[in-house]
Fold this sequence. Notes:
The protein is of the alpha/beta class. The protein is 41% helix and 15% strand.
Amino acid sequence: xxxxxxxxxxxxxxxxxxxxxxxxxxxxxxxxxxxxxxxxxxxxxxxxxxxxxxxxxxxxxxxxxxxxxxxxxxxxxxxxxxxxxxxxxxxxxxxxxxxxxxxxxxxxxxxxxxxxxxxxxxxxxxxxxxxxxxxxxxxxxxxxxxxxxxxxxxxxxxxxxxxxxxxxxxxxxxxxxxxxxxxxxxxxxxxxxxxxxxxxxxxxxxxxxxxxxxxxxxxxxxxxxxxxxxxxxxxxxxxxxxxxxxxxxxxxxxxxxxxxxxxxxxxxxxxxxxxxxxxxxxxxxxxxxxxxxxxxxxxxxxxxxxxxxxxxxxxxxxxxxxxxxxxxxxxxxxxx
Length: 336
Ligand code: SF4
């Protein structure tokens, strides 16, 4: 085990990525709080510090509406099965523009406009076009539902630079969306020239390492450039409240293995919600969030789980990253 561990970690340190079998080996054989655990975390940290030139990044997100959403992802606070519909909510156009402008003025890298998948596409597109008109030079990260090719084209033409989409763990079992549909959307995003952001999510104690590696394998092949890990939050009164959450150490281990598995393919690496340990395990991308949040039962996540820009910056600095404040697209072009 020791020789194999040393071989895999030495290979990973080069930033060349890992095979699925090597990622599975690390997940299965590295015990939390062991000597190997510390070596694994340090290796992922070193790959990110070198690959990202010691810079961390702060991006922003505006959650523009909440549930109930018919896609019924059991882990999501907005799903019909978890949401009683008593507090259905959508920000006004003015609120969305104002929030986006505030984030832009703070200097965030991009602004994610997040809605439930049940919002009409035309409405989501209209909001995106409005924000692009009203908030000069804002780089937009789309986060809606599954996209037909013509919808991906429309978002690209509206000025979206990035799109977030994930093949979730137990997609089609814990959600009412097929794996095929999710994968098709991710392909459509890159086909039209948007940059694809994704995430290993929502990780809970019930997921096996085999299914985690299977999901990572699909996403690596889809040219994901902005990757993340997200642990499932046991929001009150949801299908998964009783199942609980993974520990911070397990979350850091999964973040480190994900970081090493993707290697130089990544332009950033995030962990939601970030912990100090994850920021020492390869994560360098933080999000300051306002508005609605599927991991939060507060209507304004800035009053709940959402982090402020200052908190994000302090976390990056504490983990040894400088907060990047230059031109983000130039940075990504130089890193390709
Ligand atoms: S995760 Fe997205 S698609 Fe699933 S229920 Fe929540 S809002 Fe709907």
